[in-house]
Specification:
The complex is a heterodimer of chains A (316) and B (292). Chain A has 316 residues and is an alpha+beta fold. Chain A is built from 14 helices and 7 strands. Chain A is 44% helix and 11% strand. Chain A starts with a strand and ends with a helix. In chain B, helix 1 crosses helix 12 and helix 9 crosses helix 11. Classes of the chains: A alpha+beta (316), B alpha/beta (292). At the A-B interface, helix 6, helix 9, helix 10, helix 11 and helix 12 of A face helix 2, helix 3 and helix 9 of B.
C-alpha cells in the first residue's frame, strides 16, 4: 500500500523552527510505523532521528505521537493508522523536550520515577528464606508490573501539560506497585508523600493514560486505588480527600449532588482564602440564574439510596 | 422513539438551561422521555474511588429502573454516560459480580438482569434517529457559524469500553451534527482533551489553565463558539473563562453552548426558550450571527 508520512522535524543545532517533511512509500500492509520509518532512514533520508531497539513492544524505546496520540511505533500497523488519503502524521511524544526529530529528553520522566522511591523497602531484617505472600496479592500487582516505561502515558497526560510538577501517571503507577506490595514496610510513608501537592489528588481522571498505555497498566486506575488506600489509612486532611468524602455524603443524604456544598466542604470550612475566591464565580452564576437550588432537597427514592450506603459502608 | 431519561445532577442544579433545552428539543425531535425521577447520582467517577461496589450498586439500581420500563437510557452528560457505560460493562462481563450487586439491591425491590442500553443524546441523534431526520427539522441553518466541538473525556475514553470499536465514527458525531445544522466545525487539538472540571476544587490553577488553553486554541482557529455534550465541561469552560482570561492575560469571550441549545437554535427555538441568556460568557454574538 502507498502511505505518505508527514514527519515533524527539528534540529536545535540548525537554528530553524520545527517543520514537517513528507515521505511517500510503497510498503506491505503488514508494516508497522516503525518498519516504515526505518525504511525512510535507510533509503530516503539518513538524517531522520528516532529511538528504537527491540521492535517487539518490549523495550519501550519507540514511543511517539502517531496521528496526535502516543503509541509504540513498533506496535502500530500502518493499515490501522493511515487516513482515507493514506496519510500518517508522526511527531515526537508530548510533554517532553525534543532533542532531535522524534527523540525526546526522558530525564524529567526518570526523575519523577526516582522521586517515588521505586524499590522495595521491607520491614525489619529479611527472612531466613524467601518472602511468602498470597498469590492474589501478586496477581493484583502483575498488571502494573507490565509497565515498560515507554512514556506514552506521560506524553498524553493532560495535567502535566499545565503543571510540570505533577508526578504524572508512570511514576504514580510505579508508586502503587510498591504501596500494594505486601512485602513493603513503608507503604504508609509513601501514601503520606503521595497525598501532597503534585501527587495522587492532582490527577484529573481524563483516562488519557489508560487509553494510550500499550501494556494495559491503566495508570489512572492505580492512582484511584492509591487515593482509596490513602483515605483508608487516614490521610484525609487534604482537599482531594474532603472532595471525595463530600460527594459521598451528599449522594448518601439526598440521592444527588449538592453542588453548592461540595466546593465549600472540599476547601474546608475555615479555608477563608478559598471561600472568598468562590464569591466572584458564585456572584456571576447568581446573576445569570445558574445557581443550584439553595435548599438541596432529597430526590424521590433517597431513602433507598441511603439504605444501600448504610449496607455497603458497614461491610467495608 | 421512547427513552428512560437520566437528566443527571447538573441539569437539575448548576445548568438548568440544559434541562430546559433538552426537553424542548426532544419534543420536536419526536423523542418521548420518561424521566427516571428516583435514580441516584452516578457518583461522577468519584464515588468509585472509595467504594466501587457501592457506586456500581447505585448505578445498577438505575439500570434496573429502565429495564423495568423496557427502555434504553438517554443521558445528556458525557460524565454520566462514561460512568454508567463502564459500570454496565463491568456488570455485563462478570456474572458473579452482577449477582453480588443484585444481592445488595434485593432489599430495595430491584434486580438488574444486565440488558439496559445506555446512550447519550448525541449518539441517539446519529445512530437511532438519523441525521437525515434532523436535517428536515432545521429551519434556521447555522450558516457561517464556526463551532468548536468539545467532547468531554468520559464520552471518549476508554474507547474500547465506550463502543468505539463498533462505532468508530463516534469520534466525529459532533462535527456531523454541526454540519447537518448548517454550521462549520473548527478542528483543534483540545477538542478531545480534559476541561479540568474534576480538579477544579482540588487544584484551581491547573483546572483554569486547561480552560484557558482550550478556549484560546479554539478561538485562534476561528471558532465563534464551543459546543459540548457535557454540562461539567460547560460549567468549567463557561463559568471559569473569566478566571482563565485573567490567568492567561488574554480576552477570550468564547460562548460555550450545550449540544441541545445548538440544535434548538437551528430548529428555530427562541434563544430564551433554550436558556441562552443564562451563560456566564454571553452567547449574544452567536444568536446575532444565526439570526442574520
Amino acid at each position: 500500500m502507498q502511505v505518505s508520512f508527514k514527519v515533524r522535524r527539528f534540529d536545535p543545532e540548525a537554528g530553524k523552527p520545527p517543520y514537517y517533511d513528507q515521505y511517500t512509500l510503497d510498503v506491505p500492509d503488514y508494516f508497522t510505523v516503525l518498519d516504515a520509518l526505518l525504511q525512510v532512514r535507510d533509503e530516503v533520508d539518513g538524517s531522520l532521528a528516532l529511538r528504537c531497539s527491540c521492535r517487539s513492544a518490549i523495550c519501550g524505546s519507540c514511543a511517539m505521537h502517531i496521528n496526535g496520540h502516543a503509541h509504540l511505533a513498533c506496535k502500530s500497523r500502518i493499515q490501522n493508522f493511515a487516513s482515507k488519503t493514506g496519510e500518517i502524521v508522526v511527531e515526537p511524544m508530548g510533554n517532553m523536550p525534543v532533542i532531535k526529530d522524534l527523540v525526546v529528553e526522558m530525564k524529567p520522566f526518570w526523575s519523577k520515577v526516582q522521586a517515588v522511591t521505586p524499590w522495595l523497602i521491607p520491614e525489619g531484617p529479611p527472612p531466613q528464606r524467601e518472602y511468602v505472600v498470597p498469590n492474589s496479592a501478586m496477581l493484583e500487582l502483575a498488571g502494573v508490573m507490565n509497565c515498560i516505561m515507554c512514556g506514552c502515558c506521560v506524553s498524553d497526560c493532560t495535567v502535566l501539560t499545565v503543571d510540570k510538577s505533577f508526578l504524572a501517571p508512570a511514576a504514580l503507577a510505579k508508586a502503587y506497585r510498591f504501596v500494594a506490595d505486601p512485602r513493603d514496610g513503608v507503604s504508609e510513608e509513601r501514601l503520606r508523600e503521595l497525598s501532597k501537592r503534585s501527587g495522587i489528588w492532582d490527577c484529573t481522571r481524563c483516562f488519557e493514560c489508560v487509553q494510550q498505555c500499550p501494556k494495559n497498566v491503566a495508570p489512572m486506575e492505580r492512582i484511584l486505588a492509591l487515593r482509596a488506600k490513602a483515605m483508608e489509612v487516614g490521610f484525609t486532611n487534604n482537599i482531594g480527600s474532603r472532595h471525595s468524602e463530600s460527594i459521598a455524603r451528599s449522594v448518601k443524604h439526598s440521592g444527588w449532588l449538592d453542588e453548592l456544598r461540595v466546593p465549600i466542604e472540599s476547601a474546608g470550612l475555615f479555608n477563608i482564602k478559598a471561600l472568598i475566591g468562590y464569591i466572584p464565580v458564585g456572584f456571576r452564576a447568581l446573576v445569570k440564574g445558574k445557581v443550584p437550588p439553595i435548599i438541596h432537597r432529597p430526590r424521590p427514592g433517597a431513602d433507598s439510596v441511603k439504605r444501600i450506603f448504610e449496607k455497603l459502608e458497614v461491610r467495608k | 422513539m421512547k427513552y428512560a431519561f437520566y437528566p443527571g445532577c447538573v441539569s437539575k442544579g448548576g445548568c438548568p438551561e440544559l434541562y430546559t433545552s433538552t426537553t424542548a428539543v426532544a419534543q420536536k425531535l419526536g423523542l418521548e422521555l420518561v424521566e427516571l425521577k428516583e435514580a441516584a447520582c452516578t457518583g461522577a467517577g468519584v464515588l468509585n474511588e472509595k467504594n466501587p461496589e457501592l457506586a456500581d450498586t447505585l448505578n445498577a439500581r438505575t439500570f434496573a429502573m429502565a429495564e423495568r420500563l423496557g427502555l434504553p437510557i438517554m443521558t445528556i452528560c458525557s460524565t454520566c454516560q462514561g460512568v454508567m457505560t463502564q459500570t454496565n460493562h463491568k456488570l455485563q462481563s462478570d456474572k458473579s459480580y452482577l449477582a453480588k450487586v443484585n444481592s445488595n439491591l434485593a432489599g430495595e425491590g430491584f434486580e438488574y438482569k444486565g440488558g439496559t442500553l445506555i446512550k447519550h443524546l448525541l449518539w441517539i441523534l446519529v445512530e437511532d434517529m438519523g441525521l437525515e431526520k434532523l436535517k428536515t427539522l432545521v429551519s434556521r441553518p447555522l450558516k457561517g457559524l464556526k463551532v468548536a466541538p468539545f467532547y468531554g473525556c468520559y464520552i471518549l475514553r476508554p474507547s474500547s469500553v465506550l463502543g468505539y470499536d463498533e462505532h468508530p465514527a463516534r469520534m466525529t458525531y459532533i462535527e456531523q451534527v454541526v454540519s447537518i445544522l448548517g454550521g462549520e466545525s473548527v478542528d483543534y487539538t483540545g477538542k478531545t482533551k480534559c476541561c479540568g472540571f474534576p480538579i477544579l476544587t482540588i487544584n484551581e490553577r491547573n483546572s483554569v489553565a486547561m480552560v484557558g488553553d482550550h478556549t484560546i486554541e479554539a478561538k485562534s482557529k476561528g471558532a465563534d463558539c464551543m459546543v459540548t455534550p457535557c454540562p461539567l465541561c460547560h460549567l468549567n469552560l463557561d463559568g471559569y473563562q473569566p478566571k482563565a482570561s485573567a490567568q492567561k492575560g488574554a480576552k477570550i469571550d468564547l460562548p460555550v453552548l450545550h449540544l441541545p441549545q445548538l440544535i434548538g437554535l437551528a430548529m428555530g427555538f427562541e434563544p430564551k426558550a433554550l436558556g441562552l441568556q443564562r451563560h456566564i460568557v454571553s452567547a449574544r454574538g452567536v444568536i446575532a450571527k444565526v439570526a442574520t
